[in-house]
Each structure stands twice: as C-alpha cells, then as structure tokens.
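Submission checklist for the structure archive. All mandatory fields must be present; incomplete records are returned to the submitter.

[x] Identifier: Homoserine kinase
[x] Organism: Actinidia rufa
[x] Residue count: 376
[x] Sequence attached
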Amino acid sequence: MATCYHQSAFKLISSAFPPSNFHKPNHSIYVSQPLRCNLSLPSKTLVTEPEPVFTSVKSFAPATVANLGPGFDFLGCAVDGIGDFVTLRVDPQVRPGEISISDIDGVGNSAKKLSKNPNWNCAGIAAIAVMKMLNIRSVGLSLSLHKGLPLGSGLGSSAASAAAAAVAVNEIFGSHLSVSDLVLAGLESESKVSGYHADNVAPAIMGGFVLIRSYDPLELIQLKFPNEKDLFFVLVNPEFEAPTKKMRAALPTEITMSQHVWNSSQAGALVASVLQGDLKGLGVALSSDKIVEPTRAPLIPGMEAVKKAAIEAGAFGCTISGAGPTAVAITDDEGKGREIGDRMVDAFMKEGSLKASPMVKRLDRVGARLVSGIPR
C-alpha cells in the first residue's frame, strides 16, 4: 500500500475534462489548441476532497504505437480492440488515503512478473498520482489489473495500465481532473518504468494520433485523422522481449545535421499525411526513419526482412512499434492486412527464427474510457 495525499507538483492551465457518464468526451477541440501544463510551477491539489460517486468502476485503455518511424518520443497513436482493463473499488479494508493491488492477471507471464506493490507497478503509480491530485485522504481503494497486452511488446503495455488506472480513479471520484492531469499521472508512471516520454500514454488516454509539442511545459496536440478514411494497423508480435530501457540504451548519443534534417522533414510529412488522410504519404514517412530504427532493427531478429516482406506484400509502410519487437505496417483494407501479416510472420520465422502472431486493428479514436460502474 502507499499513502496518496501529498501535494501535486504540477501547474495545469488547460480546460477541464468533463464527466464521461460512461462515454468518452470529444477531444477534437485540441486539434488546433494544444493542452498545456507547466512542470516547473507547483500547484495545489483539490481544496475539497471529493466523495466517491461509484462503489466500483471498470476502465479500459488501448494499445498504442509510439514513434511512428521518425517521430521518436513525440508522435504516437492508439490502436483499437486490444489493451488493459482496471477494476477499482472502494475498499473499507484498505487504510484511508491508500491503494492496494489485489489481483493481476492476463496474457503471458504478467501475473508473475508484475509487482503488487503499488509503488512498483505502472497502474499503482498512476493511481497514486491521481489520488494525490484529488487530495484523497478518507477513502481506501482496491485495484485489480487485467493485462491484455504482453510485457515488452512495443505496444505501450505500461502506458495502457497507467492510463486505465488514472481514468478509473478519476471516474470513481466524479471525473474532476483534466486530460492533461491524467496524462501527467501516466507520465509519472512511465518515468519510473521506461523513461519520461508521453508518446504512449498520451494517445492511450486521448485516443487517435497525438503530437507531443513540448515536455516542459507539456503541450499535446491531437491530430484528427479523417473519419471517412479507413486505416488498419498490421501488428506482428514475435516471441521475443525487447525491454524499453535496453532498446533506449542502444540509441545514438549524437546525429549528423543531414540526419536531423531528413527525420524532421519525414515527421512533418507524417503529420500532414495524418491530417489529410493520405495513407500512401503516411506509409512512406513511417518507413523513413534514419536515426532510431537503424540502431534498433538489428537487435530484433529478422526485423529488416519483416519490413521488406510487408512492403512487398502491399503495405503502405512498415516500422518498429515503439521500442519493439512488434512490427507495425499500415494498409487501407482489412483483408489485405491479414495477407500482409502472414507474410510478416513468415519473415520473422525464416530470417529471425522467431514465432510471431499477427493482428489487424483499426485506429482507436476514443482512448481510455469507463466501461462500467456501480453507483453509490
């Protein structure tokens, strides 16, 4: 357990996140006006501690694809249909102002590898951060985590847990916090697990494509992909773990001016392609990273062959999802996506001697949300 009512260190100057009432609010306003918060200015928690409006809630947060090729640490998007669930309840057996993790289950070896100590668990750290922001002193909470995402997969596993927990705590007390509050709570978790980067946790909470314009102050811009356009992600996850910290350690400490110019232009093209719904342009930019992918791909057996196989099979583009080892390709047709996935699986086995499983998923435009709740 952990005490959860210390003063928050964040000054937030964005508009409030309205109550969801079981529905996700519309974030389209943030396409043109970024969310901002200043990390250097201390702020107070809520003056009045809110009372729980639910006795229990269940929340979901989706998988995410970070970096998107040239957008290292500042671009990411949410993926529909896979993610983590958090069930949270008011628990009189837990000391007031504290949280306990009662259960962890799900895919792979999550239950064995993840700690139930909330100070060492992604969901627990984010939940504690939200409780601090809300100034919770008189209620104890019990949290159960269901992992739908494998650990070390490059699909934002830690961010999904953090996002689902942050939303659950906020909702059980009446949804008083803003989107940027929730992202900051998730960032506190991410910083202790894989580094201070929001390209997973921001899209996990907000949905869609998100650009991190700045980290201090934190500024987030949601990029609206046209609703009438079809976008499918082909996600191929090999049986190989690539811890984020290890993959970040492999990155170059210096780059050339030509590499900087190239990646900057590709990131700009990627953003333009998202806003225009230009999948061909998005695929070209996605595949064009000359800084991060070239250092990480050799650490994932068969990755270079997998990318080649995806493009030869008709994908618009292919890259490493986050830190890997999942490879992500994009297409505009679900059936074609399954064919591309099969070719990528074959390449992982042939060139990397790795078994792999494919998925074809749409863009998640909603982000973390309340699934159900029992009112008090």
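[x] Structure attached
Curator remark: The chain is about 30% helix and 25% strand. The domain at 54-223+365-375 is CATH 3.30.230.10 (Ribosomal Protein S5; domain 2).
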